[in-house]
Amino acid sequence: MIGKLSGRIDYRGDDHVLIDVKGVGYLVYCSERTLAALPGPGEVVALYTDLLVREDLLQLFGFPTLLEKEWHRLLMSVQGIGAKASLAILGTLGAEGVNRAIALGDWNAVKAAKGIGPKTAQRVVNELKDKAPALMALGGMLGIAPAPVADADQDAVIEPVEAAPKSASAPAGAAAQSEALSALSNLGYSPGEAASAVAQAAGEAPEADTAGLIRAALKLLAPKG
């Protein structure tokens, strides 16, 4: 299975990009958000990929981070969500936006994606609310973009995917949310409760560090009255 591609962009279409890897062109479908962030033709790029295999079809889908790739796979586990719908959701919300929408039960945010109706959006939230926290806890480790090879013509350009280690280059917000979620889970809060509180706290204070998110989430989880 092709888990990562690194090469030069040959051309860009409305929903895909052609990546030249040592003379072999790989057609990779991406969300609008991902396509907009890619460099122009002739530039080196690296994407994590997921290969869809059907009896009469082989399609590669590309993602800027492992976190987004894993969300794609999780979204496609929901009845009625295929690759196109998953890319529409990720293109509208991004991986962190999907994190937040699922944690807060905000199906209206999911419904904002093109082609996603209210019933499908509600199904996404309901079916993933218990599965999402485990993925959210890995956000800091998986939210790192792959580095393109220095020379796109060298041999090691097609690689299997491995979980990226924690790094100082990981987005601070994603890492802080992951650590806060883990801490709340260790305190005995259910994954759903912890994820919802951390997502709300992060939305109110995007620049908060881990300790700040934990304090804010604990206030949200404290009994009212």
Automatic annotation (TrEMBL):
It comes from the Bacteria. One of its GO terms (molecular function) is four-way junction DNA binding. Gene3D superfamilies: 5' to 3' exonuclease, C-terminal subdomain, DNA helicase RuvA subunit, C-terminal domain, Nucleic acid-binding proteins. This is Holliday junction branch migration complex subunit RuvA. Has three domains with a flexible linker between the domains II and III and assumes an 'L' shape. Domain III is highly mobile and contacts RuvB. The keyword DNA-binding applies. Its main location: cytoplasm. Residues 172-225 are annotated as: Domain III. Residues 1-64 are annotated as: Domain I. HAMAP family: DNA_HJ_migration_RuvA. It is found in: Cytoplasm. InterPro entries: DNA_helicase_Holl-junc_RuvA_I, Hlx-hairpin-Hlx_DNA-bd_motif, NA-bd_OB-fold, RuvA, RuvA_2-like, RuvA_C, RuvA_C_sf.
